[in-house]
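Structure ticket #2291
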Amino acid sequence: MSTSAPFVRFEHRDGVALGIGEARPRLSWSAPTGAVQVAYELAWHITSPDGIVVDQGAAVVEDDARVLVPWPAAPLPSRARAAVRVRLRDAEGVWGEWSEDAVAERALDAADWEALLIGPAVESEDGDRRPPLLRADFTVPGAVKSARLHLTAHGLVRAEVNGARTTEDTLLPGWTPYQDRLRVHVHDVTDLVRTGANAIGIALADGWYRGRFGFEGGTSDIYGSHIGALVQLEIETDQGSVVVASDGGWRTAPGPLDHASLYDGERYDARFRPKGWSDPGFDDESWDAVVVHDLDKAALSAPDGAPVRCTEELHPVSVTADGDGWLIDYGQNHAGRPRLSLPALPAGTVVTVRHAEVLQDGTLCVRPLREAPSVDQVVSAGEPLVWEPDFTIHGYRYAHLSGIPAKPEPGTIVSRVLHTDMRRIGWFECSDPELNRLHENVRWSLRSNFVDIPTDCPQRDERLGWTGDIQAFAPTAAFLYDVQGMLVDWLRTLSSEQERFGHVPVYVPWIPGGAFWRPWQDIAGWGDAATLVPLALYQASGDAGILARQYPSAKGWVDHVEGLAGESRVWDEGLQLGDWLDPTAPPENPMEAVTDPHLVATAYFARSAAALAEMATVLGLTEDAERYAALAAEVRAAFIARYRVDEAGAQDASADTQTAYALAIAFDIVTDADARARIGDRLAQLVRDSGYTVATGFAGTPLVTWALSATGHVDVAYGLLQSHEAPSWLSTIDRGATTIWERWDSMLESGDVNPGDMTSFNHYALGSVADWMHRVIGGLAPAEPGYRRLRIAPRPGGTLTRATVRHLTPFGPAEVAWTLDDATLTVAFEVPAGTSADVDIPGAPRAVAGPGYHEVVVAREDFDRAGHESSVPLPA
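Resolution: structure written out below.
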């Protein structure tokens, strides 16, 4: 056994897990490379906040399991602290060393809350309501042993104890349907609380709760007209416990923010910052008493995912004079906000930062922002100041800075990149620098739009959790980052909104959708997120618990669509978005695609029915598995009979499209081998006839390269991926893209921005091709859910001479690296401990490989003979 120790995790969390909701959290751990685990020993030590031992013990289990292993101890009571460690035994009976303790603390139960939801009593009825501050003094007798701050809000909240922020986490408590679920965040503030006099301060802002948000000017007070904080600080001392809870005795006053809006930005007036307001002894006599708001504490919930944090700082790559200020280029489109380091400017000086994704005629192009101005301002108090907005976020590459007397020095302004703090677990690199740039664009769009929920875009007056976008992108996301916790949390929201409306809305959480969008619209490809996102997470993690929790939602969606389609099994009525943003669609009508939208709807019906059957099989629901497998077969037969795609070109033109054939192949609708070969050939011909340009929108783009490679046309898939002819992925690179665009022509070839009012330069959906890059170019995929068995099947092609793909599977790192020259194809790969791999390399015998490093060398002529005709299985 290797001497390297394992690393233990609770559920899908990294590091110390404070405030978890599970009483019986599952455990996972790493294993040393090359190690063979035949048994494990878990040891646990569970204490109450005052240090009393609640439970302790150890157990040896003869098993090689180490991913999401059941909790070994008694259920955790609220507030309990659990320390767990593990060691492993190999086949020779040798025990490895113990891991470090992994630590988790259970959240409060509803009955544990003493705090009340409090906020300001009087606010302006006209215009902006100034974000308030709240505060209270408290005294701690004795030496502090530990302190935990339990915090949530209606609105956005930031806490300070004794003048110091309690966390760098931001945009708390995030966005959920607050009436159903309000997340509570827990901070370890032991180092901030001291013996004697203390103070706690709370800053609030409107956020999603009551701020202007949504289409056509937006809607305010979506969830309520008040804002308020729920605060419970629990302190353990050598003289007992102290609880500081928000109540009617706290004081409140307007803070230094004139306004704080997710769309508009922030205006901070440093002249009105009450110095020392969160320190003990501050004179708050002139402040107002707070009022108490109603709160159903049954809605309080622990978050499943990590919070939003700054994960990187971008420095300007250029600063140039522009009108009354300075144009700043950060070199990368992203989601974030500025941090300014300002000298002592005359009191009252206004410094303004405006933001945009692109330039038009050499200056900021703000038209695509629609009604989200994205402007931050700071008013000087006559002193040096370092300032960053707290309660807003923007999507941008460029900024315009005005109000300073001279060109900003290096470090004066930086951009703080913000997103949910997910661990990166996937990498790809190849010999084509433009494909590498494309892959980075995909990754940056993921980071920009995984901001508490999976949004469509980070910049304009939208930023909603569109179900269709994440349905297409979930497999790609789950390879690149550990998105399990965040997306599991979002799926809770999908389920609750589905229960509330009886439908799966096109975006969740649901908010008023202007003149067009309604929560009861049944849209294929969007509602199918109920089935396909849980299944993608299960394939990536092996976590059947996700399927169990989401099964009622998935079943509800499929049953609902079955009713809509009726006995014909063809979903051919009602509004459908179809192949949304087909490149032929005019700017004013993104639904105007060449593929019949009801063909798309029926294909998704078949796919979701089959997905539900798979979920039922995993969960042991035999009758459901048989029923939905039969339903899927009926829908497939109805699809073929109605649209005759198996005839490959003989049917109506709206079914003779790249998207129609991609759906029929990738969703396994056409299963007859001869028919699949015919439509694969027809799809390849359509791509060639288009000059290797993309002719697909949201429905077809995630699938077209898969459909080509699954039917023996890997070379055509490479031709499509590496094409520079617009519309194509690389043509956007040629026009300067650093993220994935919403439309293939978000920027026209002339360099002008698309004239439509729906133009974003940071949408991840069309970047779903990265899943194909990982699995087919790189050649790494799960052959079983959670990578318990891997598939090593690279398909070199196009102009590439090498590629490397790496993924941190639940069992450890897996990697494939290949090089191709005139003489040989060399494929080196690493298989994690506790797994095996099915190896399928063109020109070499198929094989099964065990854990460790392997290398296969194939003569170039053998590869050429086998590689050009080989197909690639579709992802599970």
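Closing remark: The longest helix spans residues 544-565.
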